[in-house]
Amino acid sequence: MIKRLIAIVLVLMVAMPVANTASLTSLAKAKPTLTPSPSPVWPPKGFTPSKVGNTFIKIPTAKELVGLASNDKALTAALARKVDGVRVCEKFSCGAVQVTSLDSCKWWVVTANVKGATSPEDSTIKLFGTVRTTIGKTAAKKYTTILIVSGEPIELRHTVSNIRAVCHTEVPVEKVPGTTYTVAP
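and the corresponding structure tokens:
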């Protein structure tokens, strides 16, 4: 008799659903879903293509430049470089450009104009000089941020404008990397 009672209790325990079993079962069956990272968009959004269409440039905002520097050791080092004990872009007028290309580049040449008011009294815009910056090799479809440092004191509030970048596929014939500031006549 006791054996029968135990058998009936066991059958009932197995056959009857236990409270909260449904939620436990659904949790056990739930599998995490992993969302893959989106593929990089090409051509890159926000970038201006060259006339040929194989290179692209973008002028980052100051906020974007801070974000880019947080992930780029070379850019961080360039921004932290000091001249006469002062950070380079706190001493001179600076600009920046992001470049990328369909094919790898053995080196880049970036040129820009440095413009500003003729004097504090005369707001006529004048070309003060040009900057030519070279950087080394970049891989295809790799984004690189280039800092452009003029030789003009920042107090004059000159701007770096008309930025152009050229990807070279031949071996450099000059010192790379380098920056040359030429004062306008």
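(Above: one complete record from the training split.) Residues 48-183 form one domain.
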